[in-house]
Structure formats: structure tokens, C-alpha cells
């Protein structure tokens, strides 16, 4: 295997969700400067779901016009759009427009929607493109996809996003504020080490790196040697082209000897999906697990991460967010060397990860006074739970990607579509609970008092 190809596949994967992940980690610095305030996360959730129009178009094209759409021009377009949108965001994120008599951050919302289209569409184009390379590089791609969340989080950590200190509140007009508790603390958020503009420029640079990696994956001679032949795409070609491809393949010196009728019967496809390796029931199970896992990891649990961690302190929140982001690429590397494809093991890991997710959800529901809130063990447990949650379910996602890669090009297109569908259902389910009904409560980082 080519080390260069592994590096390029990783850098290519990093561009998949780096823009939206970067937007989320930068919210503590963006929100105080815009009229939408903390309603912005809710607006972003809606915009991301609206952006699924991109994956829907790509999936329908593959379904009704197989073999017509080439992912490469689409990837060039969306990555280029991502570069331009993040660059413009650096200069216009604070600009407002009067709409209906109120100030609104129209440039920020519009550019966020375009970035959502870019990242959502990457799910149904980047993965199928990786079919052009040998199977080993798909795991490296998933590692890069995991780094698309980790790298912005680390940069935001260096930037000092959300660092808070508690100090005595300054009381003015003491004669008229006799009921004010003189010992009350005030949360003071420390200024960032560098500006939001520089952070968005960094995201634009990350998208440029993704574009360069993609160009080299298409044109570098070392990568060309790692490419699969065109027969791998024959399942998505028109019948006459597929027959021609098969006839050419039959003339190669790698032709296998004839197999016995018994072996032929044993190797009959078990379903019409992909290569028929899995039965219809097994295919359904794989896609249900894929949708469930992505709903949990991409929408349900991230929407309550602050509620589950912040009661234990700002340090616990940042540690959980960063270590969970590290767990994603770690799971990819584990899958690279131990790709266990057993559906039973996959189901067991899914149940285990769901159990960790249930504990996280319970702590979020108990916020601002979850279990063990006053002890160091509570902090350790919530951080460890987040790590194990992401580690187990990320491994499941990678294994499903490896399984579907072997089933063919169309299987990976459907893989990306189901990833987006699961994420959308999770986001739609959590939006009213978090933003409308206010089921989850956040405490004051300096003044919340919980019973011992």
C-alpha cells in the first residue's frame, strides 16, 4: 500500500464535515455578537436538514439514472463552494440585514446553509468515490472523517473558546439592592486568543487542503497504481456497457477455472442488493443499525452534550468533547487492523453504545444536578462514557462502511443516503425537545447549587 495514498485519503476525508463541525465549536464566540443569540444552534439544525436536498438529488440520480452521474465533477463543485463560503464567512459573519423590522444575520445563515449543502452532499459523493481505490483506503478515509471533528475542536481549544472564570459580581446602587446576595458570583468568559475571522480562514484553508488531496487522488501516478479497475463499477453501468466490460474481463489471464454446479448453487446471490452476499433481512438490519447509530452520534447526543457535561464543570465539557472527537479516528484505526464483520458482534456493539448513550441522556435530563455532580468520580464517569459511546458506535459505522463497500458502488451511495436520513430523523426528534419545550435545563456555571 502507498503511504501517500493513505495520507491523501485521510486529508480528503477531513474535508467532509470540517466546515459544519467548525461552526458548532465556534458558537460560544459567534453567539454573543449576533442578534439571534443562542437561537442560532436551533436555526443551524433546521438549515442542515434543509441541506439534505443535495443528498436527495444525488441518491435519486443513482436510483433512476444509474451510471450517468460521475461523482468527481460534483466533488470539485461542492469542495470549491466550501472554500468560497468559509472564506466569505470570515468577513461577513457579523453583518446584519433588516428583515421585517428586525436585524437578522442573513449572510451568516445563508453561508451556513451553503456549507450544510457541501457537507451533507459529501456523504453521498465522497464515499462512492473511494470505491475507486483499494478497500484498505476506505478505513483511512473514515479516520480522516473523524479528524474533521477533532481538528476544529483542538483549534477552538487553543483559541480558548468558552473558557469561563467566576468572580464576585460588581454591585451598583447598593442602597437599592439590599436583597442582592453580595456573595453571588458572575460568569466571566475570557477573550479568545485569536478572532472568529481567523478561525473561519483556517476552515477555508482546510477545505483547500481537501481539494488538493482530491486532485492528487485523481491524477498522481502513485495513486493510479492503487486504483481498482473499471469492472468494480460495472454493476452501475448500462446493460450493454456492463456486458462489454464483462467480456473484456473474461479475456484477461486472471480467468478463474470452472466451478462445480454445487459451488455455483452455493454462491447464488441471497438478495438483489449489491453482490447478494447478504439476505434481504440482513441488508435491512445493516441499514437500520446504520441509521440508528448516525442518529445517535450526529444529532441526538450532540444536541445534549452541554447539558450532560457542563454541570461537572467547564473542564469536563471540553475534555469530553475533545476526547470523544479523538475516539472517532481511534475506532477507525482499530477497524483497520481488526475488521470484525459479524452482524451479531455489530448488534452487540450497537446495544453497548446505545447503553452509554442512555446514561448520557439521563445525565442531561437531570441537569443541572446530575449524579455525582460534586465528585471527581462523576466527572471521570461522564468523560469516559462519552469516549466509549463514540468509540463503540464509530467502530460500527466503519465496519458497515467496509461491508457496503464490498457490495459495490451503489451500496455506498445508499450508505451515505441512510447516514443523512438517520441524522435528519435524530435532529428533527431532538429539535422540539431542546429548543421548543425546553425539557433540558442548563445551570449557571458559577451559582447553581445542588444537594450533596
From TrEMBL:
Plasma membrane transporter mediating the uptake by cells of the water soluble vitamin B2/riboflavin that plays a key role in biochemical oxidation-reduction reactions of the carbohydrate, lipid, and amino acid metabolism. The chain crosses the membrane at residues 42-62, 74-94, 106-129, 141-161, 194-217, 276-296, 316-336, 343-366, 378-404, 411-440. InterPro entries: Riboflavin_transptr. The keyword Transport applies. It is a multi-pass membrane protein. This is Riboflavin transporter. Belongs to the riboflavin transporter family. Residues 245-254 have a biased composition (Polar residues). Coiled coil: none annotated. It catalyses: riboflavin(in) = riboflavin(out). It comes from Takifugu bimaculatus. Keywords: Cell membrane, Membrane, Transmembrane, Transmembrane helix, Transport. It comes from the Eukaryota. It is found in: Cell membrane. GO terms for cellular component: plasma membrane. Residues 244-271 are annotated as: Disordered. It holds the Pfam family SLC52_ribofla_tr. The keyword Transmembrane applies. GO terms for molecular function: riboflavin transmembrane transporter activity. The lineage of its organism: Eukaryota, Metazoa, Chordata, Craniata, Vertebrata.
Amino acid at each position: 500500500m502507498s503511504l501517500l495514498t493513505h495520507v491523501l485519503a485521510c486529508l480528503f476525508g477531513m474535508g467532509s464535515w470540517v466546515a459544519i463541525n467548525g461552526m458548532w465549536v465556534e458558537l460560544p464566540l459567534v453567539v454573543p455578537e449576533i442578534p439571534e443569540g443562542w437561537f442560532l444552534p436551533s436555526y443551524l439544525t433546521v438549515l442542515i436538514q434543509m441541506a439534505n436536498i443535495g443528498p436527495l438529488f444525488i441518491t435519486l440520480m443513482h436510483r433512476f439514472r444509474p451510471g450517468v452521474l460521475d461523482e468527481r465533477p460534483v466533488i470539485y463543485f461542492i469542495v470549491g463552494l466550501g472554500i468560497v463560503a468559509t472564506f466569505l464567512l470570515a468577513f461577513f459573519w457579523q453583518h446584519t440585514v433588516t428583515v421585517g423590522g428586525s436585524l437578522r444575520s442573513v449572510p451568516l445563515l445563508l453561508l451556513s446553509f451553503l456549507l450544510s449543502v457541501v457537507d451533507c452532499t459529501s456523504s453521498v459523493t465522497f464515499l462512492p468515490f473511494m470505491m475507486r481505490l483499494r478497500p484498505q483506503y476506505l478505513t483511512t478515509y473514515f479516520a480522516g472523517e473523524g479528524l474533521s471533528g477533532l481538528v476544529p475542536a483542538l483549534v477552538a481549544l487553543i483559541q480558548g473558546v468558552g473558557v469561563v472564570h467566576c468572580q464576585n459580581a460588581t454591585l451598583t446602587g447598593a442602597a437599592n439592592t439590599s436583597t442582592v446576595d453580595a456573595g453571588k458570583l458572575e460568569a466571566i468568559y475570557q477573550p479568545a486568543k485569536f478572532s472568529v475571522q481567523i478561525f473561519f480562514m483556517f476552515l477555508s484553508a482546510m477545505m483547500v487542503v481537501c481539494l488538493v488531496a482530491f486532485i492528487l487522488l485523481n491524477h498522481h501516478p502513485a495513486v493510479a497504481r492503487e486504483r481498482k479497475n473499471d469492472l468494480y463499477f460495472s454493476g452501475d453501468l448500462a446493460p450493454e456497457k456492463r456486458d462489454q466490460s464483462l467480456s473484456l474481463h473474461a479475456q484477461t489471464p486472471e480467468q478463474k477455472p470452472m466451478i462445480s454446479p454445487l459451488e455455483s448453487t452455493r454462491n447464488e446471490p441471497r438478495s438483489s442488493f449489491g453482490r447478494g452476499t447478504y439476505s434481504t433481512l440482513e441488508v435491512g438490519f445493516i441499514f437500520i443499525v446504520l441509521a440508528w447509530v448516525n442518529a445517535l452520534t450526529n444529532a441526538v447526543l450532540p444536541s445534549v452534550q452541554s447539558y450532560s457535561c457542563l454541570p461537572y464543570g467547564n473542564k469536563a465539557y471540553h475534555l469530553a468533547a475533545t476526547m470523544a472527537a479523538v475516539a472517532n479516528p481511534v475506532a477507525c484505526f482499530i477497524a483497520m487492523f481488526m475488521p470484525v464483520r459479524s452482524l451479531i458482534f455489530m448488534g452487540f456493539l450497537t446495544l453497548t453504545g446505545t447503553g452509554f448513550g442512555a446514561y448520557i441522556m439521563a445525565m442531561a435530563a437531570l441537569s443541572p444536578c446530575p449524579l455525582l455532580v460534586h465528585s471527581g468520580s462523576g466527572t471521570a464517569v461522564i468523560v469516559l462514557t462519552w469516549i466509549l459511546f463514540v468509540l463503540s458506535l464509530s467502530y460500527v459505522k466503519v465496519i458497515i462502511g467496509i461491508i457496503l463497500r464490498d457490495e459495490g458502488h451503489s451500496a455506498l451511495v445508499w450508505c451515505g443516503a441512510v447516514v443523512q436520513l438517520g441524522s435528519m430523523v435524530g435532529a428533527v426528534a431532538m429539535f422540539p425537545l431542546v429548543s421548543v419545550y425546553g425539557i433540558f435545563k442548563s445551570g449557571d456555571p458559577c451559582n447553581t447549587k445542588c444537594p450533596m
